[in-house]
Amino acid sequence: MTTTVAIANQKGGVAKTTTVASVGAALAESGSRVLLVDLDPQACLTFSLGIDPEDLELSVHHVLTKGLDSAEVIVETDDGVDLLPATIELARAEADLLTRTGREFVLRSALDDLAGYDWILLDCPPSLGVLTVAALTAADAVIIPLQCETLSHRGVGQLLDTVHDVRRFTNKGLQVWGVLPTMYDGRTTHARAVLDDIAQTYELDVVQPPIPKTIRFAEAPAVGRSILATSRRHRGAEAYRGVAGWLTERAAHV
Amino acid sequence: MTTTVAIANQKGGVAKTTTVASVGAALAESGSRVLLVDLDPQACLTFSLGIDPEDLELSVHHVLTKGLDSAEVIVETDDGVDLLPATIELARAEADLLTRTGREFVLRSALDDLAGYDWILLDCPPSLGVLTVAALTAADAVIIPLQCETLSHRGVGQLLDTVHDVRRFTNKGLQVWGVLPTMYDGRTTHARAVLDDIAQTYELDVVQPPIPKTIRFAEAPAVGRSILATSRRHRGAEAYRGVAGWLTERAAHV
Ligand SMILES: Nc1ncnc2c1ncn2[C@@H]1O[C@H](COP(=O)(O)OP(=O)(O)OP(=O)(O)O)[C@@H](O)[C@H]1O
Ligand SMILES: Nc1ncnc2c1ncn2[C@@H]1O[C@H](COP(=O)(O)OP(=O)(O)OP(=O)(O)O)[C@@H](O)[C@H]1O
Ligand SMILES: [Mg+2]
Ligand SMILES: [Mg+2]
């Protein structure tokens, strides 16, 4: 049985991509079969896993807009996860799909054809457009990575409005599993205040443990591997292993 | 004479909004007449300056898509700058404008009708879509805020490709003034290596001084003021005053 999780937050730079790569690697490390899907035209996830998008002829763009089989596009990575990669052509997907009836379902149909994965994680771009809505429509659950700062707080309400619409119109079963505190500096009162405020205001669970802020995460993409490979015993990697465990337990209650 | 500067970088969370708010406030503090334009549907700049986008009936969206006069929409702020605010309706602007001939010029025409500003700063969303292209078409110059980390490095080439297209087709005079290192931790070799690599690879000037990483920036939007008001003598505010000075000197050579 496959669990599909969208990692979404329209605010930029809150560690969506880092979360998908690190949690994916942690799940694979503990034996799960994992597929990661890069839905950002900037292809940061693809690049982070050691694949140069400019070397790719086929990407998720062709799956979504040309009806290509996902299996023909999926690649293996050194981090033990499979990847449905992105390229800059995906920037046209929003325009290409804009007038197509049922555009929200293009990703869901593509993933429905796949078998054999325990987990599919979807890396969303920093917007609430067609690609994010397609991800929410394809997912069983959504996790919201949250940089616990004021400007991040604003976006949560808008994201939940979008989730609400998706549940009404295109994916009744979509569950919000909670917010994941990322780049978390628990020593500052600001971060703790923002986290508490968000959890209470929107009645959201908080995924555990929070991911600590550490330069090690910025260094990992430079060698095209997740932090579990580059700093395997470091507290940043350990925290994402913890999150993988939290998700596994949460999935058991679905 | 008005100098219009686009603050652009499609990577999320690299301090575009923080740069526009802080540099704008610094220029106003030293006597300039400043207009800030919020081009992000998430309206973070608008919110950062103490204005709740949900209270606004009119925004830059109506200026761009309904031909409304900017002067009817511009508001004053407590930070001494004027603001052309955004609301979530701006999310429709990309779709609304997509098929309109000359859509790249909608912002330029709107700003051409304004007189009396020394500086107009344009806060771009984290994408290379219609709104960012409109900003680059309207601007005399572009500044690229740069979080000196690997994933930020990737985007610079793509952004410069877009700038190249704009210079060919819609704005011959657009100048790239350089990269501004933001959230800079000069103690790490990673940050310095990424900065040097980008400056050399793309032959870009580096705006001075770099902006240091400090939690004070995250706290300012909570009270709806720029850091020059909330931490006026702090090194973060001083750094942005320095950048305002750098820009003033740079504008004199245009
Ligand atoms: N826990 C952390 N500590 C320090 N740096 C981090 C951490 N997590 C991620 N980063 C770094 O922060 C930057 C932003 O992270 P990332 O690209 O994953 O965010 P994102 O939400 O996917 O951004 P975008 O909105 O552009 O897609 C990257 O340079 C990344 O390496
Ligand atoms: N020098 C700094 N030190 C620490 N935090 C900072 C600094 N500059 C900005 N920040 C914080 O980092 C976060 C991202 O900044 P900001 O929203 O300005 O980036 P952005 O590029 O406009 O993001 P987006 O791509 O979502 O528009 C905000 O919470 C902001 O308050
Ligand atoms: Mg990302
Ligand atoms: Mg912004």
Strand content of chain A: 5-15%
Attached small molecules: adenosine-5'-triphosphate, magnesium ion
First CA to last CA of chain A: what distance?
12 Å
What shape does the CA trace of chain A take?
Answer: globular
Low-confidence stretches of chain A: none
Q: Please give the share of residues in helix of chain A.
A: 40-55%
The oligomerization state is homodimer
What does this structure look like?
The structure is a homodimer of 254-residue chains. The first copy, chain A, is of the alpha/beta class. Chain A is 42% helix and 14% strand. Chain A contains eleven helices and seven strands. Chain A has helices spanning 16-29, 44-48, 60-66, 93-97, 106-112, 130-138, 150-169, 189-202, 216-219, 227-230, 235-251; strands at 3-7, 34-38, 75-76, 82-84, 119-123, 141-147, 175-182. A seven-stranded mixed sheet of chain A has the order 3-4-2-5-1-6-7, with helices on both faces. In chain A, a hairpin with a 5-residue loop joins strand 3 (75-76) and strand 4. Chain A is globular, with a radius of gyration of 17 Å. The mean pLDDT of chain A is 96. At the A-B interface, helix 2 and helix 7 of A face helix 2 and helix 7 of B. The structure holds adenosine-5'-triphosphate (2 copies) and magnesium ion (2 copies). The site of one magnesium ion has 4 residues of chain A, from helix 1.
Topology:
The structure is a homodimer of 254-residue chains.
Chain A lengths: L2 E5 L8 H14 L4 E5 L5 H5 L11 H7 L8 E2 L5 E3 L8 H5 L8 H7 L6 E5 L6 H9 L2 E7 L2 H20 L5 E8 L6 H14 L13 H4 L7 H4 L4 H17 L3
Parallel strand pairs in A: 1-5, 1-6, 2-4, 2-5, 6-7
Antiparallel strand pairs in A: 3-4
One magnesium ion binds next to helix 1 of chain A.
